[in-house]
């Protein structure tokens, strides 16, 4: 039976290995979380008027096209 | 079979990519479907909605 032994590593090397292995994955999860938040909050006026309207192509979908005279308030 | 493999290797292999693509797809479908159905509705009902006929009734662009 082979013996597996733990090779001690320095904290700096451990941290850099951890970052190299999990960095990209956490980055993609961050993009995913951001996309999910943007999608789920796209109905709120804060996100809609503050962010989405300003995006070049997507903004035309979210901007309010009803003329002012047609609004009751 | 090849399609399944292609789908797996580009989308489903990493769960982070899979979940992100689901949300991104939902966002894109939301906008795309709405635009498609709205433009069809407007074309099917051309001339019948207020936005088509309002020019006949609105005197000038600035209301008195």
Automatic annotation (TrEMBL), chain A:
Keyword line: Membrane, Transmembrane, Transmembrane helix
Parts of the chain that traverse the membrane: 26-47
Pfam families listed in its UniProt record: QCR10
Domain of life: Eukaryota
Any Gene Ontology biological process: mitochondrial electron transport, ubiquinol to cytochrome c
Gene Ontology CC, one term: mitochondrion
Record-given protein name: Ubiquinol-cytochrome-c reductase complex subunit-domain-containing protein
Automatic annotation (TrEMBL), chain B:
Entry keyword set: Electron transport, Membrane, Mitochondrion, Mitochondrion inner membrane, Respiratory chain, Transmembrane, Transmembrane helix, Transport
Principal location class: mitochondrion
GO cellular component: mitochondrial inner membrane; respiratory chain complex III
Entry superkingdom: Eukaryota
Sequence intervals crossing the membrane: 17-41
Pfam families linked to this entry: UCR_UQCRX_QCR9 (PF05365)
Location of this chain's protein in the cell: Mitochondrion inner membrane
Mitochondrion found in the keyword field: yes
Keyword DNA repair (UniProt): no
Signal peptide bounds: none
GO biological process entries: mitochondrial electron transport, ubiquinol to cytochrome c
Membrane topology per record: Single-pass membrane protein
Listed InterPro entries: QCR9, QCR9_sf
The protein's assembly and partners: Component of the ubiquinol-cytochrome c oxidoreductase (cytochrome b-c1 complex, complex III, CIII), a multisubunit enzyme composed of 3 respiratory subunits cytochrome b, cytochrome c1 and Rieske protein, 2 core protein subunits, and additional low-molecular weight protein subunits.
Protein family: Belongs to the UQCR10/QCR9 family.
Task of the protein: Component of the ubiquinol-cytochrome c oxidoreductase, a multisubunit transmembrane complex that is part of the mitochondrial electron transport chain which drives oxidative phosphorylation. The complex plays an important role in the uptake of multiple carbon sources present in different host niches.
Protein name (Swiss-Prot/TrEMBL): Complex III subunit 9
Lineage of origin: Eukaryota, Fungi, Dikarya, Basidiomycota, Agaricomycotina
């Amino acid at each position: 039976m082979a013996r597996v032994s733990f090779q001690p590593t320095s904290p700096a090397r451990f941290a850099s290995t951890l970052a190299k292995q999990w960095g990209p994955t956490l980055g993609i999860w961050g993009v995913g979380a951001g996309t999910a938040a943007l999608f789920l909050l796209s109905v709120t006026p804060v996100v809609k008027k503050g962010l989405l309207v300003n995006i070049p192509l997507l903004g035309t979908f979210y901007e309010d096209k009803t003329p002012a005279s047609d609004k009751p308030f | 079979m090849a399609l399944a493999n292609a789908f797996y290797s580009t989308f489903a292999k990493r769960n982070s990519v899979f979940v992100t693509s689901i949300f991104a797809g939902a966002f894109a479908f939301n906008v795309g479907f709405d635009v498609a159905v709205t433009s069809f509705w407007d074309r099917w009902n051309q001339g019948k909605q207020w936005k088509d006929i309002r020019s006949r009734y609105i005197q000038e662009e600035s209301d008195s």
